[in-house]
Structure to design on (570 residues):
């Protein structure tokens, strides 16, 4: 054996923890290797000096201190036993069950009430409204700095020639490089197709069900009303920011329902788009603010709006958040985060939303997107 | 005629779990018994790990407070000794991880208030040698890396087997072997530097 012995083996040899065959090899090596034998001796001295350290009796007052501290301290099991003893008497079981049932019912009631009030913006709740509620899809828009939400920006995206299709697919877009490059005006939003909708997976739905809410409601906006609301009947998609308590939109007869079932995110969005049809001709009575009173609408547009602590000014074409330059890139507005990009892609991917109003709700800020004009 | 046979069955409780069971039932003597069994072991472990007698007393108190609270949940998956060791080591790690023991004043052997245990295994020569070098060894030991110190103290001071240490620390036996060897080597270097 020519190589020196590892220190671990020398130490284990001292403790008798080396396997017999290996121990005999090591001993043989030590007999002829002064260096290894000296190292072994050093290790042995170390172990011996530690063993030589005296042991001591703990101070007598430790037990008294422990007893004092534990006099008012229930043991883990003792506490459980006390609880168990309280629960075990049969006479108390019904009382406990009743209290538990009452608490559970109260929590359930609060939850149901909360759910109901959240959808009340769409009018009186009906059984068919549940279909619409079903279509609520949670997703996100960036909570960060908001900027210009102008119709011409969206229009720019739609009108961009040769817009690639990959922006409609999360997987593709994830591999498509930095957000800014992918979301340059043009590729992000384009005329959508049904195939695009199918390309978004159910996984995206699950990912998007975390924080924010998209309410998609098909509202075939009357072209005259839309023109009054926006000052002109622009063929391009329109975007506006409004207060959460926005007037309810009028639902008109919808196109025939799609054949396929809603199975994933896109299908659910499609269901949302078909909400009027699902509602079976039920017409909501509310009208859009612009349709009801264009003058009042314009007046309101003229004054800044405070939404969730942020101030927006209407510049004649869209809402601009104060403090952010009007010419801020669109990416800063809606595509400054992955959630925002995903959201925009999904909205753009809805083939049936031309002429519809897509309401995006995020922490009290409501953004209306009008991807297209009525046919 | 059919024979009917009665078989008696006796439930034999492990002494450790019996202690835990008695503690669960509120028998104060059970905890006292645990204390009398392991207080010296815990105190000496804490002393050598911390290098300070006062801190060792505080650590011992904390350890037995935890033992008092959790003894009822002891189920005998390991021996009570291993369980107590684990509580003690965790307490040492928790305390010593925040404060380097090397900065603590070191205790002197035979100092006031410390009653040395009678040593029945070593001869007068070894005991004398221990008295002379104890402070130096304690200083060097307290300067070791915590993982090495644990391994060396458990092996050389507490006399535990490698396998026991591996179970206690939850590491492979090869790691135990390595830590002991490297701890001893580091201690040797430290002692030679301070000689």
């Amino acid at each position: 054996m020519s190589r020196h012995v590892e220190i671990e083996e020398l130490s284990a040899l001292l403790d008798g923890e080396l396997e017999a065959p290996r121990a005999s090899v090591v001993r043989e090596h030590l007999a002829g290797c002064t260096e290894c034998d000296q190292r072994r001796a050093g290790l042995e001295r170390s172990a011996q000096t530690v063993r030589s350290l005296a042991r001591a009796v703990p101070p007598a007052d430790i037990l008294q201190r422990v007893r004092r501290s534990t006099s008012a301290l229930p043991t883990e099991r003792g506490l459980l036993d006390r609880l168990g003893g309280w629960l075990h008497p049969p006479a108390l079981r019904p009382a406990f069950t009743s209290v538990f049932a009452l608490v559970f019912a109260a929590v359930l009631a609060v939850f149901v009430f909360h759910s109901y009030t959240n959808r009340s913006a769409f009018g009186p709740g009906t059984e068919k409204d549940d279909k619409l509620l079903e279509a609520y899809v949670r997703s996100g828009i960036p909570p960060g700095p908001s900027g210009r939400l102008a119709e011409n920006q969206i229009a720019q995206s739609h009108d961009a020639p040769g817009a690639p299709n990959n922006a409609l697919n999360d997987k593709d877009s994830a591999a498509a490089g930095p957000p800014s490059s992918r979301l340059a005006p043009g590729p992000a939003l384009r005329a959508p197709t049904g195939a695009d909708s199918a390309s978004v997976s159910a996984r995206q739905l699950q990912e998007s069900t975390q924080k924010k809410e998209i309410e998609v409601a098909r509202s075939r906006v009357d072209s005259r009303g839309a023109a009054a609301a926006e000052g002109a009947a622009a063929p391009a998609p329109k975007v506006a920011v409004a207060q959460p308590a926005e007037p309810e939109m009028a639902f008109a007869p919808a196109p025939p329902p799609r054949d396929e079932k809603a199975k994933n995110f896109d299908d659910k969005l499609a269901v949302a788009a078909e909400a009027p049809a699902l509602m079976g001709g039920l017409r909501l009575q509310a009208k859009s603010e612009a349709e009801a009173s264009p003058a009042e609408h314009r007046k309101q547009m003229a004054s800044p709006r405070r939404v969730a602590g942020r101030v927006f000014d209407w510049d004649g074409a869209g809402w601009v958040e104060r403090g952010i330059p009007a010419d801020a890139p669109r990416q800063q507005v809606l595509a400054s985060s992955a959630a925002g990009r995903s959201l925009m892609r999904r909205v753009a991917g809805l083939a049936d939303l031309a002429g519809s109003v897509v309401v995006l709700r995020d922490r009290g800020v409501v953004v209306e997107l009008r991807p297209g004009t009525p046919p | 005629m059919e024979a009917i046979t009665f078989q008696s069955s006796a439930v034999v409780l492990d002494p450790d779990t019996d202690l835990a069971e008695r503690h669960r039932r509120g028998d104060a003597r059970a905890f006292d018994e645990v204390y009398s069994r392991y207080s010296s072991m815990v105190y000496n472990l804490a002393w050598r790990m911390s290098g300070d007698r006062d801190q060792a007393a505080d650590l011992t108190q904390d350890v037995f407070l935890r033992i008092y609270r959790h003894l009822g949940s002891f189920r005998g998956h390991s021996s009570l000794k291993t369980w107590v060791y684990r509580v003690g080591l965790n307490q040492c790690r928790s305390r010593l991880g925040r404060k380097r023991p090397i900065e603590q004043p070191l205790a002197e052997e035979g100092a006031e208030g410390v009653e040395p245990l009678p040593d029945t295994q070593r001869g007068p020569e070894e005991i004398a040698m221990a008295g002379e070098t104890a402070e130096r060894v304690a200083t060097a030991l307290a300067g070791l890396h915590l993982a090495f110190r644990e391994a060396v103290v458990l092996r050389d001071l507490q006399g535990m087997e490698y396998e026991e240490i591996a179970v206690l620390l939850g590491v492979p036996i090869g790691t135990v072997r390595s830590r002991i060897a490297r701890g001893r080597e580091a201690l040797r270097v430290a002692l030679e530097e301070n000689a």
